[in-house]
Amino acid sequence: MTQTEGIRTPASWVVVGLDNGGTTDNATVLDATGQFLVDQLVEIPSRVLDGPELAVEALADSFENIIRITNTPLTLVKAIGLDTPGPASATGVISSKGATNFSAVSWHGFDIRAALERRLGLPVVYNNDANAASLYAHHRYFGPEQAMQKSSVAGIVGTGFGGGVVHDGRVIKGAAGMAGELGHVQIPLQDVIEPGQPVPRCNCGFLGDVESIASLTGIKNNLLPYWLPRFPDHPLAGESIPSAAKQLRGYAEREDPLALAVFGQQAKAIGKLFTIAANFTDPDVYFIGGGVVEAAPSFRQWFLNMVRDYTQLRQEQVAAASFALVPDLDMAGARGAAVAAFDSVVAEG
Predict the structure, then answer these.
(1) What is the pLDDT of residue 110?
(2) Spans of the chain below 70 pLDDT
(3) Quick one: pLDDT at residue 138?
(4) Paired strand residues for 324
(5) Are residues 105 and 228 in the same domain?
(6) Cα(76)–Cα(305) distance, rounded to whole angstroms?
C-alpha cells in the first residue's frame, strides 16, 4: 500500500493522534464527524533513544507529515492526542522509573506533553499507550453514543503487560496517572502455574503479578526456562531463550504442545486478572490486545476462549459481559490518542 492510499481530506475541524513508540511514531487524523482520515500506519522514526529534544522534534515531524499527506490546513487542527509507553503521570511527565524506551536519565521527570505543546502551539492531550489502545477499543466496540454509557477493561500483551480501564467512555487515570497499570496486579497463582514451578518474578520486583507471566518478558524470564527442559526434543530446545521466545507464537498457531502450555499459562493469568476486575469494576467488556490479535484466527480464538474460561464471573455477569479482541492493534494507539483529543474538544464546546 502506498502512503497516499486510503487517505481522505477533512471537511471541517480535526484532531491529530500521535502514537510514540520505541522505534517509530505513528500518526492519524480524526475529523469532526468522527471519521478517521487514515486507514493505515503512517510512521516515521521516533528517535526516543536520542533523548527528549530530538524525540519531540520527531513527534513534530510526524504531526507535520500527517497533516500534509491528508491535505489538512493547520488552522483546522483543534488539538493533538499523544500517547507514550508508560509509566508516566496523568499529564505526561515521564516517571523516574521509566519504560525501556525512556531509560536515559534525561527522560526522567521530562514533561513530554508540555514540550510538544510548546513546540506545536496546540493543546496536547496525553495518555499512555495502553490506555489509548483501550480507549479506541472501547469506542470502536460500542460506537459514539453507547461508548459514553459503558465500561471496559483491556489487557495488552506485549514486551510488558499494559492495560486500561474505561468508565462512561473515559479512561480512568488515577491521582498520579498510574491507574490501569494492570500488569503489576498480583494474582492468585492457583491453577495458573504447575506444582513445583517457581513463582514468576517481574522486573518491577513483584512476585506473581500478571506481567511476570503474560508478557514477552515473562516468557523469556520465567515460562520458557521452566517449560523448555520438559520438552528436550523440541526444535526450540537448541535455541537461545530470546530466540525461542520470538518463535513461540508461530508454534502455537500450529497447536504445538510446548507453545500451548506457555500461552495457556498466560491466558489463565489474564483470566485471574479479569476475575479481580469483575469484582472491582464489573465492566461491560473485557478486551485482549497484543500479539494474540496479530496471530492466526484459530489461535487467537483459542486464547480468547481460555481467558474467558478462567475468568470467574457470576451468572448475572456472564449474561451482561462480553469478551473481545482490541481491533486494528497497530493503529489503536494513535487512534485512541485522537479519540481522547476529540473528546476533550467536544467537552470544551
Answers:
(1) 95
(2) 1-6, 98-100
(3) 96
(4) 287
(5) no
(6) 44
| Host domain of residue 118 | 14-122
Choose among 290, 286, 265: nearest CA to 275: 286
Angle, helices 329-347/129-146, rounded to nearest 10 degrees: 60
Query: Who contacts 37 (Cβ-Cβ below 8 Å, separation ≥6)?
Result: 7, 8, 9, 10, 14, 28, 29, 30, 31, 70, 72
pLDDT the model gives residue 101: 73
Number of domains within the chain: 2
Q: Which of 57, 88, 122 is the last residue of a domain?
A: 122
How big is the CA angle at 172 (ends 168 and 176), to the nearest 5 degrees? 160
Mean pLDDT of the chain: 92
Helix/strand/coil percentages in the chain, nearest 5: 45, 20, 35
**Same-domain pairing of 83 and 175:** no
pLDDT at 1: 34
What are the CA-CA distances from residue 218 to residues 207, 209, 293 (Å)? 11, 10, 18
For residues 50 and 184, membership in a common domain is answered with: no
Of 314, 27, 309, 323, nearest to 155 by C-alpha is 323
Q: Are residues 283 and 224 in the same domain?
A: yes
pLDDT tens, residue by residue, 28-78: 999 999 999 999 999 999 999 999 999 999 999 999 999 999 999 999 999
CA–CA distance, 36 with 17 (Å, rounded to integer): 10
Within a domain: residue 331? no
